[in-house]
Write a structure and sequence with these properties.
Elements lengths: L3 E6 L2 E6 L10 H15 L6 E6 L4 E3 L4 H5 L3 H19 L5 E5 L2 E3 L1 H8 L2 E5 L5 E2 L2 H4 L5 H7 L5 H10 L5 H6 L5 E3 L1 H15 L4 H11 L1 H12 L1
Parallel strand pairs: 2-3, 3-5, 4-6, 5-7, 6-8, 7-9
Antiparallel strand pairs: 1-2
Helix pairs in contact: 1-3, 3-4, 4-6, 6-11
Length: about 230
């Protein structure tokens, strides 16, 4: 069973996080598969869109595999963060429209990943959205912070980052963290509707607008690449 599944339906690419036993934690295997998926998506030039969902109705992504990173040296941990920045950065700046279909818990690195995508819809009745870095004592890097700061409500970003507070889908919508919240049954159909609408936009024009919106992130990535 692949930890991440990848398929195309019409002009919509569907990426399914598929490790429900772990809550779709992020580790070296997962990052490797994401690179493969991104390589295919980055080669797409026709009008399309991407939905990132989960096969687990309880969790979308709960962040880094803590068991994996706890055994790492300082050098290994720094390398892990670089890998995370690379993969999430490629997702954030991908030329195609991206929609996060958040089926459940979206925590820590998972919340950063969701923030890096263009649009987010979340299950209304179950699951938490939270930046837990302050509680696990792993501060964000400047690049990962810029991804979190892509969320439109800056006060909410500050509050969530500094408190580690968990919010449900309905509150996440009210606070501007997600664009919409729905029942589980409505969630994926609505994500596909949004993706279908976005897939009608001109590929080059959409990408140009996206790069403007995310220029602070792109600038930070370029800055750190020079170091």
């Amino acid at each position: 069973m692949a930890v991440v599944e990848f398929e195309k339906k019409g002009n919509i690419f569907i990426v399914t996080l598929n490790d429900p036993e772990s809550g779709n934690v992020i580790n070296s295997e997962v990052l490797s598969v994401h690179r493969q998926v991104l390589t295919e998506l980055e080669a797409v030039t026709e009008n399309s869109a991407v939905v990132v969902t989960s096969s687990d109705p309880k969790s979308w992504c709960v962040g880094l595999d803590l068991e994996w990173i706890q055994g790492q040296s300082a050098e290994q941990f720094e390398s892990t963060f670089r890998e995370l920045e690379e993969v999430f950065g490629r997702w954030a700046l991908l030329a195609l429209p991206t929609v996060a279909c958040i089926t459940g818990h979206c925590m820590a690195g998972g919340a950063v990943f969701a923030s890096a995508l263009d649009f987010r819809i979340m299950r209304a009745d179950r699951g938490w959205f939270a930046f837990k870095e302050i509680d696990v004592k792993i501060p964000l890097s400047p690049i990962l912070y810029e991804m979190a700061d892509l969320l439109p409500n800056k006060q909410t970003v500050r509050d969530l980052l500094l408190t580690g507070r968990s919010i449900g889908g309905a509150d996440a919508q009210k606070m501007g963290v997600v664009d919409e919240s729905h029942s589980l049954e409505r969630l994926m159909p609505r994500a596909l509707e949004i993706a279908e609408e976005l897939a009608q936009k001109d590929h080059k024009t959409y990408n140009a607008m996206k790069q403007l919106i995310k220029q602070n992130l792109a600038r930070q990535i370029k800055l750190e690449m020079k170091e």
